[in-house]
Design brief:
- 2 copies of one chain form a homodimer.
- Chain A is α+β, with helices and mostly antiparallel strands and about 180 residues long.
- Chain A folds into 2 domains: about 50 residues, Arc Repressor Mutant, subunit A (Orthogonal Bundle); about 130 residues, Roll (Thiol Ester Dehydrase, Chain A).
- Chain A has 5 helices and 6 strands, in the order ααααββαββββ.
- The radius of gyration of chain A is 19 Å and the shape is globular.
- Chains A, B: This is Acyl-coenzyme A thioesterase PaaI, contains HGG motif.
- Chains A, B: One of its GO terms (biological process) is negative regulation of fatty acid biosynthetic process.
Chain lengths: ~180, ~180
């Protein structure tokens, strides 16, 4: 029993550390990592007073929205979990069945585009910006329920032109990439 | 009085012809063309039994949706007013205030993108298609209330790749153009 306790204590510490390093890890991923049930992970989080993933995302997003100048919070498709104006930004979008083509159950391209475009816009340090040009590539079809992570990087600012690269992944696999030129007006 | 009657008769004939040649002309445009009030145009249409623009668009669209293979009617952003599979297609979208950025009242880019992408998809003669690559350019900001006309042209079919160009105009001014490569699966 003491060994079991020690094991739990050990797990709790590692769990805490893991979530600190990777705040957007899911309970499912944690359960695989520690080889315990999802229920156990939930109890561990409860004990450690760590909120569930959706709550953690929302808490982080709330702070980040305040930094955005170009567009309103509700205009960003996905939750903004990291932002450094004119440098980079990260957003998360959980896809669902409302976003798919009926026939194929594949997420419609314009949702993914909207996620990328709105993140590109959010990351710009300007009052008002519009998309001028976009060059995009869909690499892998996205299925309903998959969690998209978009990372934007401002690669160049020239006058009122902002060059932004956005990559979207599902579990480390790139599903989309876009190059945007935004114009501040 | 007889001359007045003749004038009206003349106008009615020209009006009928005008709408036949350009079925998507608005009452406002007709009123400018014939230098009479919009009310007069409405009465003329009533007399000639020609439905209002929205109705005319819907009637034409209904027939066109049946020809589309790749996607469902509700999945096309805009009304499909002309389609010839693997050749070309035209759609109309009346923008409204729900589509704009709060700050600028400019229509959000992804609505325009969605209009173009869904038309590109509709025009393909395949059961299932996905967007692979898109290269797009926004030329002029679109304001709420403006009527968008998208014209798609299939420029090349190579194996299961379909090359589609889409141009979107507001009153003959190009506001957007996109080049898409769609992949049938």
């Amino acid at each position: 029993m003491s060994s079991k306790k020690l094991k739990r204590k050990d797990r709790l510490e590692r769990l805490k550390k893991e979530i600190q390093e990777n705040p957007f890890i899911t309970d499912e991923e944690l359960s695989e990592l520690f080889n315990v049930s999802i229920q156990t992970i939930r109890l561990d989080r409860l004990y450690l007073n760590i909120p569930e993933l959706r709550e953690r995302i929302r808490n982080v997003a709330k702070i980040n929205y305040k930094k955005v100048r170009t567009i309103g919070e509700a205009e960003i498709i996905g939750e903004l979990i990291d932002i450094e104006l004119n440098k980079k930004g990260i957003s998360i979008l959980e896809t669902d069945s409302s976003m798919v083509f009926k026939k194929t159950k594949i997420v419609r391209g314009h949702y993914i585009f909207a996620m990328a475009e709105s993140l590109a816009m959010a990351v710009i340090d300007a009052d008002v910006a519009l998309t001028g040009v976009a060059n995009i590539k869909y690499r892998v079809p996205v299925l309903s329920g998959q969690k998209l992570i978009a990372k934007a990087e401002v690669t160049r600012v020239r006058g009122n032109n902002y060059f932004v690269h956005v990559k979207i992944t599902v579990k480390d696999e790139q599903v989309f990439r876009g190059k945007f030129i935004l114009v501040s007006i």
